[in-house]
Amino acid sequence: MKFDPSLQAPAFVNPAWKTQLFSAKAARNGGIVRRRKRDVHREIGYEAFIWEVRSRGFHMIECGDQYIVICNAGSLRIHC
Asked: How many whole angstroms separate alpha carbon 21 and alpha carbon 33?
């Protein structure tokens, strides 16, 4: 099933945090941003975070206590 960004976004607890994250230089230039899972859950919530990543066509990886967002809508291949 393809993500439909026109679906209503979950309510944000801290919209300024979300704006700061996705306006970071790395995010604007197709780089990588990472945030601790506890910070994401506290500041905007998991569902809102996933919605934001998907609506931009980005990719997200979870590793340990971090969410890693690849700010590029290109295809993703994991080698190992």
From this structure: 8
